[in-house]
Specification:
about 375 residues; alpha/beta; Rossmann fold; 2 domains; six-stranded parallel sheet; 12 strands
Length: about 375
């Protein structure tokens, strides 16, 4: 009788990370089900519903959908109890994942091991969550080495595995095209982010003019939304890409990018281009979250370096005027673009070339026996 693994993903980035791990298990005699996105579906993995059904942004989004979320938690728990897996392998989305695990443990109808990939950022805010995490998880896989001390402190079993985006990484800042005329924008993977950030991007385009080609890197779920914002801007040459290969192609050809804080920051680093990080909550979300945040920076490169390498424009600073002022300074001093790449490459070396996905897959198999 084959062993069983149930996967839980939420964000598109979690689906990508899970895919990289699980494709190493397809040849094994393991039955796999889960809450999946477009990438895991390529491996013919199915489950109670899709990851996009539980993707919400911020406290207000969660409040508005609290009964729906509760329903999805119950649906997930019931499915897992019927499937009866040996391991529940969850990737990111801790708020949803941990509530599922709590309910499974309370019901006590099944007793899988719980392995989680992408640590909750207790180093950034709400460190005491670690006490809860310790009760829920058998092991947590860490992307960054600096995280280890926080989980060791609470005696949570963990492995530093590196980052899967950099499993094969060779720095090549010398190939950067400082004369490129392509500018990339990354507005996020949620419609609420598109609503906030697209007007800022359009103001930047209006200021820079039609000298540049404007590339928008989006998800499949936000493609139409972004297209609607751009439909009347005929004076500009715009490109919208949702395909991973197309995004990478335009990233690598870009002069620079402006990107919502998140996993895309590391995609841009891998493409070896300079970029700015931006982020803007609605003010209600910001009011609730700000008192709990312990870190000075929002970009993971800056957090690890403990200084600004990637310029950040957060909340009140996230406006076209401030972004453009900084951008014009870089355009007048183009050498700073390449220096940014050189500086962040030193940070990338700390979590690159670790054979991450295969390492996790091997560990999951070892724990099935």
């Amino acid at each position: 009788m084959p062993k069983k693994i149930f996967i839980i993903t939420g964000e598109e980035s979690g689906d990508i990370l899970a895919y990289k791990v699980i494709k190493n298990l397809i040849s094994c005699n393991i039955e796999i089900k889960g809450i999946t996105g477009n990438n895991l579906k390529k491996l013919n993995i199915s489950g109670p519903f899709e990851a996009k059904d539980i993707t919400f942004f911020g406290i207000t989004d969660v409040f508005k959908n609290v009964f729906y979320i509760k329903k999805k938690i119950n649906q997930t728990v019931e499915y897992i109890e019927k499937f009866n897996p040996d391991i529940v392998f969850s990737v990111d989305s801790p708020d949803f994942v941990f509530r599922v695990i709590e309910k499974l443990k309370f019901n006590n109808n099944v007793k899988p091991k719980f392995f989680h990939y992408v640590a909750p950022s207790i180093w950034a805010w709400r460190e005491k969550r670690a006490n809860k995490i310790k009760k829920l998880l058998d092991k947590i896989y860490l992307l960054f080495e600096f995280e280890k001390k926080y989980f060791d402190k609470y005696l949570i079993k963990n492995d530093f595995v590196g980052h899967p985006f950099f499993e094969v990484f060779n720095r090549n800042e010398n190939n950067y095209n400082i004369n490129s005329k392509i500018i990339s924008f990354c507005p996020g993977s949620r419609d609420s982010e598109i609503k906030i950030l697209m007007p800022i991007f359009i103001e930047i385009m209006n200021s820079l003019g039609n000298e540049y080609v404007y590339h928008f890197a989006v998800t499949q779920s936000t493609y139409e939304n972004v297209s609607r914002h751009l439909k009347n801007l005929h004076k500009f040459k715009t490109i919208i890409s949702s395909n991973v290969i197309q995004k990478k192609k335009y990233f690598e050809k870009s002069l620079f990018a402006i990107a919502k804080s998140g996993t895309v920051s590391l995609e841009l680093c891998k493409s070896q281009i300079p970029f700015f990080t931006i982020y803007k909550f609605n003010w209600i979300n910001y009011f609730f979250i700000k008192p709990f945040v312990k870190v000075k920076f929002i970009n993971i490169i800056n957090i690890i370096a403990n200084k600004i390498i990637i310029p950040e424009f957060i909340q009140a600073d996230c406006n076209s005027k401030k972004i453009l002022n900084h951008l014009h300074f870089f355009l007048e001093n183009k050498g700073k673009f390449r220096k940014m790449i050189i500086d962040y490459n030193f940070i990338l070396e700390n979590f690159s070339n670790k054979n991450t996905s295969k390492k996790i897959a091997q560990d999951l198999v070892a724990n099935l026996n």
